[in-house]
Amino acid sequence: MPESLTPELARPGRRQRFSLLDGQRGLAALIVMLRHCHTTGALLPVAYTAVDFFFLLSGFVIGYTYEQKLRDRKITTGRFLRTRFVRLYPMILFGTVFGAIPVFAQLILGGYPIGIGSLLGAFFRQLFLIPSPPLIYDVDSLDSIFPFNMPEWSLFFEVLPNIAFAMLVFYITPIRLFILAALAAAGLGFATLAHGSMILGVDLQTLPGGLCRIGYSFTMGLLIHRLYKSQRFQLSSMFSWLLSGILVALLICPQSFLLPNEFTFEMFAVVVCFPLLVFLGAHTVNGPRLSAVCDFAGRLSYPLYLTHFPIIFVFNWYIEKHNPHGSVLAALIVLQFSAVIACAVLALLCYDEPLRRAISSRLLPERFPAKPIQAT
User: What average pLDDT does range 71-94 have in this prediction?
Assistant: First the structure.
């Protein structure tokens, strides 16, 4: 995501400028959830590239929202970092605690040959977004740098360019961004070939590849922001369906269509297609009804991204253990999907947005009034 998934709380009356990008963010978060499901994951071999789309959106939104303000000293570096903390950390805290529940339950049930001390150490490191070494090797989620809620690995990489952006904003030029993007793309290609896929940054062994992923996509997002400022035009809402269809097709493309090979497809999607989709999507204007749907999808995407995995974890464990078939499996799939969406909605409306309002009133009082809430 994630923000890697959703933008900030907006000021009252601020017009929804990038509603299509909000809707695409929600679509991508949903596809990430399907990628982690036992029953659908194998059908979505390259859906993990949705994270690169999130990184790209993040660079674009951060550049659009904050670059000129920081350059003009309308906001300070400290305020920018506090704003990012308010936006990102409440759901990181929730996701870590929520994700710890099934892991510690498995430990109590004797499912993991690992000590409570190791788990507690990893838990407190994750609360502060500090990567952990692998806890156990036969459970994928515990091999992650953030074992209690694996998708949080992308938030670790999300924070790094935010800090770098705030510190280096006065030194950013298009040519420097282009050089950095080219170098990151070359590193990403090398790391993808070496690892065999673009699943990079999830564990300690592939951390350098994860830096290349965020380095390319976040930098390209900043470049697209610059290009957007200089090339203004409007596309009709018809393009919303076309561009969203292309995005979904890229993310759910089955293995048999990955021509000439998975490496070429991943690089083509991440390096070429996603930047084009964001550039064109930023210029697409939706009608009020479609904008409202896209707005809610964008708001929901971040809680969905950080709450789905613990629920999927439990359902995957049950399905693998009991191997249900037919109507029982179908019922479990429906229940799983319903539980994920319901949990994300509750987290958004009852936790994330109210808590951000409360924190913002103390840390950012003049910028974030109590209501209403909109996505950028």
Answer: 95
Name the 3-class secondary structure at 25: helix
Rounded average pLDDT over 300-307: 98
Query: What long-range pairs does 232-235 form, CB within 8 A, spacing at least 24?
Result: 232/283, 233/283, 234/283, 234/284, 234/285, 235/280, 235/283, 235/284, 235/285
Give the residue ranges of DSSP H helices in 130-206: 153-168, 174-195
Backbone angles phi, psi at 40, to 5 degrees: -120, -15
Task: Please give the pLDDT value at position 194.
Answer: 94
Give the dihedral of Cα atoms 57, 58, 62, 65; nearest 10 deg: 50
Tokens of residue 90, six digits: 């409440």
Task: Tell me the C-alpha distance between 28 and 110, whole Å.
Answer: 35
Work out the number of other CB atoms within 10 angstroms of the CB of residue 116: 10
- Minimal CA–CA distance to 118: which of 102, 107, 105? 107
Q: Residue 287 — φ and ψ, nearest 5°?
A: -75, 170
**Residue 336 to residues 18, 36, 130, 202: CA-CA distances in angstroms?**
31, 12, 30, 24
Is the pLDDT reported for residue 13 higher than 70?
no
pLDDT at 138 over 60: no
Radius of gyration of the chain (CA): 20
d(CA 287, CA 351): 30
Report pLDDT for 119: 86
Q: What pLDDT was estimated at residue 261? A: 78
Judge whether 96 and 148 are in contact, CB under 8 Å.
yes
Contact (Cβ atoms closer than 8 angstroms) between residue 62 and residue 162? yes
* Burial label, 121 (beta-carbon count in 10 A; 0-12, 13-18, 19+): middle
Residue 6, C-beta contacts closer than 8 angstroms, at least 6 positions apart: 22, 25, 87, 298, 299, 301, 302, 375
69: number of Cβ within 10 Å: 14
Can you tell me the distance from the alpha carbon of 363 to that of 361, in angstroms, rounded to the nearest whole number? 6
* 330 CB-near residues (< 8 Å, 6+ apart): none
Alpha helices per DSSP H over 231-273: 238-252, 262-267
CA 92/CA 32 separation, integer angstroms: 17
Beta bridge partners of 114: none
